[in-house]
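quick one, 302 residues, struct below
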Amino acid sequence: MTDTAIILLILAAILHAGWNLLGKSEAPSTAFFFLANTAGFFVLAPSVILYPFVFSFFSLKIWVYVLLTGIFQAVYYAGLAAAYRMGEMSVVYPLLRSLPVLSVAIITSVFDLGAKLGMDGVFGMVMVVVGCMLLPMKRLNEITLTNYGNKATLYSLIAATGTTGYSIIDDATLRALRENAGSISTIPQVTALYAFFEGVSASLFLLMFVLLERHRRQELKQTISRQKARAAITGVIIYVAYTLVLISMSYVTNVSYVVAFRQLSIPIGVSIAIVLLKEKAYAPKLTGTLLMFTGLVLIGME
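---
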């Protein structure tokens, strides 16, 4: 990983933990994240006017990727909202952030979608995942799988599946776009336009989820009435953070490194939860944070 990628991902991690706090602090719902996502992609709307030449780089395959990544993004937000309704941030957040590390690494290695992972990278990822699994525990002797046998875990797995899907598709799409563009100077423009259309796609599928059930339609009305400002702020932060991540993908050899290094947001999120949400600083949380920092250093140095 380059220094540029590391700086971008640190900034993105701070912003990511911040918008999750905003999403968790109120009654989380798919409707809330639909509004947030919609407000967020409008931040990138000027890219359509400013960079019209970029459209020539969008082949049919790219548009299919945009559709697919929108589906995975919608699954992620829907799963995230449900998980936060069922569980605490200090449990849900580490779980849904850690699982994609292994899944993306395995998929990219098996299907040769990037540079092969070195031993330091693999060991670092294992440390990150172990650290994430320690964070929700109150005592070290409670480290059992039964701690995750609940609905919050189920929805976290659904959200993690969404993260895995859109991470891999984003990497494939941006690689194809860079090949089509052929110039390093066009990478920011291409990334901004792709992120915009990805957001449009995700909002369309989120809207479908919301309109399918009556109670979700009611949630949408209530969110517009009571939480539209918070949703808009959340959406702007989401897209600034996510655009930084997309740009960082141009400076790494394997997308799994990006997914892993983004886990820096977990100790940040845990710290926020301890300070602002008054959650307990149990020993496993601190141990897990230390393991994660060590793992991230290994990944960043490879």
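The chain has a mean pLDDT of 84.
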